[in-house]
Design a protein that fits this description.
Layout: H1 2-45, H2 51-72, E1 79-85, E2 90-94, E3 98-102, E4 107-114, H3 121-125, E5 134-143, E6 146-154, H4 170-176, H5 192-198, E7 205-210, H6 216-230, H7 234-237, E8 239-242, H8 246-252, H9 255-258, E9 265-267, H10 269-273, H11 287-293, H12 297-307, H13 313-316, E10 320-324, E11 327-331, H14 333-345, H15 350-388, H16 392-402, H17 410-416, H18 419-428, H19 430-437, H20 445-456, H21 467-478, H22 485-497, E12 506-509, H23 517-525, E13 532-536, H24 550-554, H25 556-560, E14 563-567, E15 569-574, H26 575-588, E16 596-599, E17 605-609, H27 614-628, E18 634-638, H28 643-650, E19 665-669, E20 678-684, H29 686-692, H30 696-704, E21 707-716
Parallel strand pairs: 2-4, 7-13, 7-14, 8-9, 8-12, 12-13, 15-16, 17-21, 18-19, 18-20, 20-21
Antiparallel strand pairs: 1-2, 1-5, 3-4, 5-6, 10-11
Helix pairs in contact: 1-2, 5-6, 11-21, 12-20, 12-22, 14-15, 15-18, 20-21, 20-22, 22-23, 26-30, 27-28, 29-30
This protein binds adenosine-5'-triphosphate.
Domain UvrD-like helicase ATP-binding: 189-574
Keywords: ATP-binding, Helicase, Hydrolase, Nucleotide-binding
InterPro entries: DNA_helicase_UvrD/REP (IPR000212), P-loop_NTPase (IPR027417), UvrD-like_ATP-bd (IPR014016), UvrD-like_helicase_C (IPR027785)
Length: 717
């Protein structure tokens, strides 16, 4: 095959050229690493009593550590691309930026350009139609420090020359490679529609929608890495990535570290607010409760429940009586109502407001004591004057002066009572605090949530609420804590004590179609910058968010300021697999166009199982699927209730443990399959999946779109 031989010898020459370039890059990485380690050691040894100096030192340590982390990723394909401009200029593109020091003049030239830098943009964005000044784009395949292949695309319409190694693109290789059960970064093959989203300068809310396998998750994760490098302050404030469950987080967990970003916090919406409940104390919620307790109206009901405990009119009718010294001081209801208004107007969380209320009440008591004292003195004056028929001050002055002393006036006598000391006594002591507790009590989030759920269960409080929902809410008010309680507890926590201490500079929300409005509030509470990448597919909504639109999902305020991008090309599945999913999509989201697959593959298989022996048929189909994808990963997707039998028959674990690494067969309940992918998929009992949950059709759509290579559907007849 002369053509192949020509490519091989051409490739060998080019591989050698690139190997030399890559060798120099690694030398630079090694030298930079040694230098930075020494600097970091020095910075860590620096000690000072001056806080400014120490802050500067901490900032420097952070900077050096980040750079060292980035250099540490050099082991994963340090350089993966090269662009040759029409004018002959060459740039290598890779995981990080490296500079070469040139000669004696101290100048530098780029040895490698960070993929996130503007200069690297043409590597991703150039097409034959818009070559952006490039003649050629080259992909390098590397294994550790060794360059193993190069592939070129000539972009300017010229014929490939002797130095161009044209062949199957690396995208094809990436898409057809066997899955490992862990998502890989795709920094070398990001497509231009994806790259445009990754480097969007929009700092507000960016919504990325698209069908299954269009790369929403990879785009979101690469954007997290981009934002960390490109947006000021984000690296210091941190990035939070939210995914639907632990299994999914495990699946995506390696992507950001391999891009040199180790400081990103991965969590689920439930775990994010789990701090409000003791670990493991919240069980899963029933879907009706999850849905109704996830409604944004609950925020208003919670706020009302808190306000109802802030000196309500009904509790003020008796006023307040406290003992100060030997005397009783009485505050009238209207005085307390005034204190309440000022405390509420301070706009603080409940406990902050309580402190203001306490101060207001203390002030009112000091006033009352002063008025009381003045009235007592005046009464005594009047009585003495009435008895003696003479002015008391004159008597006192005469008497005192005869002793060589100055007389005290009535108000001087009051000053002796010292209102500041009295105020301090009142605020520091337990007496007033106890008295105030009955009007404006300290509250626990759990009390607020129970009260709010009870209120929400009353007719008319939640617009459009059904009898079933009200019954579920009433049970939840008194019942054990579930995952549906957690966002409510988080909201109550904010109403009582203000926002959570840990916030982030940017938040990525994946599978966002699963996030309830109340969970959204918990997310936004942790993202004061409102800089978010929101990724999802409404057609894949779960039971708690079915039928909602993006405006409902992210809330009207955020939606108004959001930019929306749609991905249309499915990179995961073949055209044949998408065809099987198409009728289901037409039923669940008739307006949503199906994605276009980049590849063709085998026709999906259909098998039937007799009722009562689903497991036997699945075992047979799994064996066939394993033969389809030697060394690959086979996913068996089934309704949660079918898991037990299948687990026994297949001898694998399907529960929520994420499956052991190295398993070739993974049994996954459809409720946890969102976002995952496998080389071959066996969908067990599609009718059973549809019947199992209110979102059963959507679950089936998810299940049918998880395979990269082959799909088998086992129907029960
Ligand atoms: N540019 C790319 N280069 C290589 N692989 C890619 C690229 N884009 C997407 N892929 C691969 O396609 C698959 C699907 O991507 P991803 O999981 O991000 O899709 P998704 O839109 O989030 O899917 P879902 O809706 O099912 O969650 C993944 O294996 C991903 O690595």
């Amino acid at each position: 095959m002369p053509q192949l031989d020509a490519r091989t010898s051409q490739a060998a020459r080019q591989i050698e050229t690139e190997q030399e370039a890559v060798r120099r890059m690694h030398e630079r990485v090694d030298a930079d690493t040694a230098h930075l380690r020494a600097e970091l050691d020095r910075a860590l040894r620096d000690r000072s009593d001056d806080t400014t100096v120490m802050h500067q030192r901490e900032a420097r340590v952070r900077l050096l550590s980040r750079r060292l982390q980035a250099l540490d990723t050099a082991g994963h394909a340090l350089c993966f691309g090269r662009i040759d401009a029409a004018d002959g200029r060459v740039l290598h593109v890779g995981r990080l930026g490296l500079q070469d020091e040139d000669g004696d003049d101290g100048g530098t030239t780029p040895l490698l350009v960070d993929w996130r830098a503007d200069a690297a943009r043409p590597f991703y964005a150039a097409t034959p139609v818009h070559p952006l000044g490039l003649r050629r784009r080259r992909h390098l395949t590397v294994d550790g420090r060794r360059v193993t292949d190069v592939t070129d695309e000539v972009l300017d319409g010229s014929a490939p020359g002797p130095d161009d190694v044209v062949g199957d693109g690396p995208l094809h290789a990436a898409l057809t490679a066997r899955r490992t059960g862990r998502m890989r970064e795709v920094v070398a093959t990001l497509q231009s529609e994806q790259d445009e989203i990754v480097r969007s300068p929009h700092r507000g809310v960016l919504v990325v929608e698209g069908g299954p396998g269009t790369g929403k998750t990879v785009v979101a994760l690469h954007r997290a890495a981009y934002v960390l490098a490109a947006f000021d302050g984000v690296a210091d404030d941190g990035v939070l990535v939210l995914g639907p469950n632990a299994r999914f987080l495990d699946y995506i967990g390696q992507v950001l570290p391999s891009l040199g970003e180790n400081d990103v916090v991965l969590s689920t919406p439930t775990a994010l607010v789990g701090g409000a409940a003791p670990a493991g104390a919240a069980g899963p919620a029933d879907p009706v409760l999850a849905r109704v307790a996830g409604r944004a109206d609950l925020a208003r009901v919670l706020a009302d429940a808190v306000r109802a405990r802030q000196a309500p009119d009904a509790g003020l009718s008796g006023g307040l009586v406290v003992r100060v010294g030997g005397d009783e001081v009485r505050l009238a209801p209207d005085v307390l109502a005034g204190a309440r208004t000022r405390a509420q107007d301070a706009g603080l969380p409940h406990h902050g407001g309580r402190a203001v209320f306490l101060e207001e009440v203390a002030e009112a008591i000091v006033d009352a004591v002063q008025v009381d004292a003045r009235e007592t003195l005046e009464r005594i004056d009047a009585e003495v004057e009435a008895m003696t028929g003479r002015d008391l001050d004159a008597i006192a002055a005469g008497g005192l002066r005869s002793l060589g002393l100055e007389p005290l006036s009535g108000s001087d006598a009051l000053d002796e009572m010292d209102p500041d000391a009295l105020r301090e006594d009142l605020l520091g002591g337990a007496v007033l605090d106890r008295a105030v507790e009955t009007f404006w009590p300290r509250l626990e989030p759990g009390q607020v949530v129970a009260a709010a759920l009870e209120r929400a269960a009353a007719p008319g409080v939640l617009p459009g609420g059904t009898d079933e929902e009200r019954a579920v809410l009433a049970r939840a008010a008194a019942g054990p804590r579930t995952e549906a309680h957690l966002p409510l507890l988080d909201e109550a926590g904010e109403l009582l004590d203000g926002p959570p201490p840990r916030t982030y500079g940017h938040v990525v929300v994946d599978e966002a179609q699963e996030v309830t409005p109340m969970q959204w509030r918990a997310v936004l509470r942790r993202c004061p910058s409102r800089s978010l990448t929101v990724v999802g597919d409404l057609a894949q909504a779960g039971p708690t968010t079915e039928g909602v639109a993006w405006a409902d999902v992210v809330g009207p305020d955020l939606w108004r300021r959001a930019q929306v991008r749609t991905l249309t090309v499915s990179y995961r599945t073949t055209a044949e697999i998408l065809d099987v999913a198409r009728p289901v999509l037409a039923r669940i989201a008739p307006a949503q166009p199906a994605s276009v697959a980049v590849r063709r593959g085998e026709e999906p298989r259909r098998a039937t199982a007799p009722r009562g022996d689903l497991a036997g048929a699945v075992v047979r189909e799994v064996e066939a699927a394993r033969a389809d994808v030697p060394g690959g990963l086979v996913g068996v997707l089934a309704a949660d209730a079918a898991l037990g039998d299948l687990e026994t028959a297949l001898g694998v674990h399907g529960a929520a443990d994420g499956g052991a690494d190295g398993d070739v067969v993974r049994l996954v309940p459809v409720s946890q399959a969102r976002g995952l992918e496998f080389d071959a998929v066996v969908v067990a009992d599609p009718d059973g999946i549809v019947a199992a949950r209110s979102c059963g059709e959507r679950d089936l759509y998810v299940a049918l779109t998880r395979a990269t290579t082959t799909l088998t559907v086992v129907e029960v007849h």
